[in-house]
Amino acid sequence: MLPYLAKKLAQMLPVAFFVTIIVFALTNLLPGDPTVTILGEQASPEQRAAVRIEYGLDQPAPVRYVTWLARVAQGDFGRSLRTREDVGAMLAARIPVTLELGFLSILIAVAIGMPAGILAARFRGSLIDVAASLIAMSSVAVPYFWMGVLLIMLFSLKLGWLPPSGHIRLLDDPGGNLTLMVMPALTIGTAFAALVMRQTRASMLQVLSMDYIRTARAKGLSERLVLVRHALRNALIPIVTVIGLQIGALLGGAVVTETVFALPGLGRMLVDGIFQRDFPVIQGAILFIVIAVFAVNLLTDLLYRAFDPRVKA
């Protein structure tokens, strides 16, 4: 296992290096003058020139990239141009919010999508199958921001069950935290559940046609045992793959969802940084998202062997 992990990490390093180049280049291609973020629009040309020298903005792009990469390698992501706050500290404060949102969204997606997919495959062509497929297609078609607005209108404005926005730290008030996280998690989780349902249905249909499933039924095993122990376990590999590959899309959904529900997470930090031309904030947020996707893909590979011992590293 250790040689496999070392090999995977070695493969990720060149990709991570090219990602840093792309992130730095795209960030510096954003329109606007970063000195406006720092000084405002009324600053004199002399003040702007002094700030450019202070932050190294007068240096050529390759020099600034090497300097930034060297600092990142030491764990220094720089300071926000607008607030002068350490970007590493900002990431540490906002990452837990996004991780909690992602975990709850995946939990909702799996809790809804997998049972629906199993039922749709078990009763293929029935009303259950048609209804599950229609709901799945409808959920995928609805944008995150529109789903969030609909949930706010229903649960906050009409029914008054949930607060429309805001955030409370989980450790400060677990109940209040979960109350505020329900709608954001549902916004992402319902769309994610549709993808999980469709993949579960397709994988289960393929597995249910195998000879060993007919053998298990011929032995007199209950249908529940056949579906869960024999069919689902062998259908998990494609399902886990889809979940792992959708983590990037989930983080993209967090950018919109955190903005709609005013959550102080990584996605909102990225949006604020883009609007304010805060280059260190943008670079730090995107770089963490890339690292998170790498880590999830590695974890997905490791889960293959846990779910199916026939899969070798």
Describe the structure in your own words:
The chain is mainly alpha-helical and 313 residues long. It has a domain at 95-307: Orthogonal Bundle (MetI-like fold). 77% of the residues lie in helices and 0% in strands. The chain is built from 13 helices and no strands. The protein has helices spanning 2-28, 34-39, 45-54, 61-73, 87-122, 127-141, 144-158, 174-208, 211-218, 223-245, 247-260, 266-275, 279-307. It starts with a helix and ends in a 6-residue tail after the last helix. The mean pLDDT is 83. This is Peptide/nickel transport system permease protein. It comes from Bosea lupini. Residues 95-300 form the ABC transmembrane type-1 domain. It is found in: Cell membrane. GO terms for molecular function: dipeptide transmembrane transporter activity.
Q: What is this structure, in a nutshell?
A:
The chain has a domain of 213 residues: MetI-like (MetI-like fold), CATH 1.10.3720.
Which labels suit this protein?
single chain; 313 residues; mainly alpha; MetI-like fold; 13 helices; globular
Helix content: over 70%
CATH architecture of one domain: Orthogonal Bundle
Order of helices and strands: HHHHHHHHHHHHH
Count helical runs.
Answer: 13
Strand content: under 5%
Question: What is the strand and helix layout of this fold?
Answer:
Layout: H1 2-28, H2 34-39, H3 45-54, H4 61-73, H5 87-122, H6 127-141, H7 144-158, H8 174-208, H9 211-218, H10 223-245, H11 247-260, H12 266-275, H13 279-307
